[in-house]
Structures are given as structure tokens and as C-alpha cells.
């Protein structure tokens, strides 16, 4: 079970800052990766081991400055191949409380971005190979 955390704590777990921002869309981690807030309803599974997030900036209701900043960060992440870190936001409904989850086990990459619509593919890295056994003859 993955525990729900505050947005500030989610960002700080990647070394990014969300302080003072009510609902950030993204941020930059200490290691240079993009921290992206993804709404839980935007995910599909196109293939085994891949979690794909699809969204459009034109449907975002956040402040124009935040959307513009995310547009720049997505453009930069696509061109540089920057790793994307995942924060999942489940929006509150009449029956359920909103939740925020951090998924450090699922690094991603921006697959496509046309200035509005974007796709980010998240996947677990393959496990390390088993240690080599010393063979005796």
C-alpha cells in the first residue's frame, strides 16, 4: 500500500520545492530530473511494464504562469532526454478524499510533446543482473 502524502512532502522526496504553491504542476529535482504531477485518470498501460500518462496543457486550470513553466520544462525534458519523476494526484470527489502518492520506483521519459498534448512513459528499471558465480574447475 502506498501512503498518501502532502504535495510539499511529495516534491521534497525528490529534492524539489513546492513550498508556497497551492497546487504545483511540476518542479525540478536536485538531480536535474523533472518532477511531474499526474492526475490518476490520465494513465493507460500500452504494453507490459509501461505506465503511460497522457494530458493536454490546454485543459489545465492552473495559473497561466504555471502552465507556461510546465510547457518549457516538458520541451526541455523531451529535447534533453531528462528523467521524469512521478507524483500521482487523485482529485477529491463527493465520496473520496483527494490523495497524493510518490512513485520513485517508476522513472519516466517524455515520449511526445507538441506544445499542448504530451505523453510520458513510466517504467520500472530492470533488476540488476545476478552476481557472477565463481566457477571452479
Provide an overview of this structure.
With 137 residues, the protein is α+β, with helices and mostly antiparallel strands. The protein has one domain (7-123). Helix content is 17%, strand content 35%. The chain is built from two helices and seven strands, in the order αββββαβββ. The chain has helices at 7-12, 64-80, and strands at residues 26-28, 34-39, 43-44, 50-56, 83-90, 99-113, 117-123. It has a seven-stranded mixed sheet. The model has no long low-confidence stretch (mean pLDDT 90).
Can you give keywords for this protein?
seven-stranded mixed beta sheet; alpha+beta; 137 residues
Write the layout of secondary structure elements.
Layout: H1 7-12, E1 26-28, E2 34-39, E3 43-44, E4 50-56, H2 64-80, E5 83-90, E6 99-113, E7 117-123
Parallel strand pairs: 2-5
Antiparallel strand pairs: 1-2, 3-4, 4-7, 5-6, 6-7
Structure described in brief:
With 137 residues, this protein is α+β, with helices and mostly antiparallel strands. Helices cover 17% and strands 35% of the residues. The model has no long low-confidence stretch (mean pLDDT 90).
Shape: globular
Round the mean pLDDT to the nearest integer and report it.
90
Report the order of strands and helices: HEEEEHEEE
Q: What number of domains?
A: 1
- Termini separation comes to 47 Å
Q: How big a fraction of the residues is strand?
A: 35-45%
Structural class comes to: alpha+beta
Strand order of the largest sheet: 1-2-5-6-7-4-3
Q: Over the alpha carbons, how many angstroms does the gyration radius reach?
A: 17 Å
Outline the low-pLDDT stretches. Answer: none
Largest sheet features: 7 strands, mixed
Amino acid at each position: 500500500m502506498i501512503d498518501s502524502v502532502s504535495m510539499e512532502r511529495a516534491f521534497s522526496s525528490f529534492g524539489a520545492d513546492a513550498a508556497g504553491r497551492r497546487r504545483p504542476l511540476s518542479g525540478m529535482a536536485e538531480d536535474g530530473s523533472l518532477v511531474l504531477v499526474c492526475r490518476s485518470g490520465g494513465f493507460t498501460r500500452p504494453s507490459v511494464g509501461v505506465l503511460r500518462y497522457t494530458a493536454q496543457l490546454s485543459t489545465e486550470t492552473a495559473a497561466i504562469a504555471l502552465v507556461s513553466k510546465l510547457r518549457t520544462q516538458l520541451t526541455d525534458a523531451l529535447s534533453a532526454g531528462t528523467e521524469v519523476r512521478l507524483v500521482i494526484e487523485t482529485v477529491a470527489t463527493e465520496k473520496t478524499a483527494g490523495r497524493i502518492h510518490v512513485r520513485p520506483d517508476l522513472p519516466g521519459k517524455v515520449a511526445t510533446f507538441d506544445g499542448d498534448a504530451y505523453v510520458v512513459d513510466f517504467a520500472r528499471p530492470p533488476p540488476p543482473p545476478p552476481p557472477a558465480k565463481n566457477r571452479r574447475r
